[in-house]
Amino acid sequence: MTTPADKPASKVDFGYEEVPAGEKAGRVRAVFDSVADNYDLMNDLMSGGMHRLWKRFTLGQTGLKPGQRALDVAGGTGDLASGLARQVGASGLVVLSDINWEMLSRGRDRLLDEGVAGNVGFVQANAEKLPFADASFDCVTIGFGLRNVTDKPAALASMRRILRPGGQLLVLEFSHPVAGLKPFYDLYSFKVLPALGRLVARDAESYRYLAESIRVFPDQPTLAAMMREAGFEGCRWHNLTGGIVAVHRGYAY
Fold this sequence. Notes:
alpha/beta, Rossmann fold, 7-stranded mixed sheet, two-stranded antiparallel sheet, 9 strands, globular
């Protein structure tokens, strides 16, 4: 497999494939159009329910207070946005954004069904070009979405721009596990996960892409360096479940 330095500037990773940069967003959109109906069920099955604990940990790091403003980027069906809305209270505001309308509409319907309303807005938006004013939010979260973005540095810079001084970004994402877990993790990712996708979602290929997208995503130190290059300070990460998942955080000053 080629390294980023070897690839032409016009090519980006789509899992293990290299595709023209202009095509990736459309191909990712097709993946999530396909998996939207079964997204929450598959999250529970794929992680054995662990994704709920990972998101709970992330929410525990926000430091949000009633009346503040938070943005959940690539927020999908709204797990993080729901928790953020409870943290900021009726006097605060949470915006759930996603580039994919199918995912965003399911998040909106789910939050309304849960009675989360009045302090939540919904915006279809590209993470690379967030349509919000500078210094608009106290906290930005992105859960399991950054690896699907075509231009990750642009997305990080966009999230930095909209944070108020002292605000923080929290990136919850699959990462690189400790060495002892890797053989079992590979077996699960490339055998069990596509099989689950085929049986439950009738779509093995989308889940094969999701597994591959994890493998080509930057490791923990590299992502922290990318955040620093985007203007974040105090960047660090917390490994969860042996590094299968990591929460990166950085501050805007």
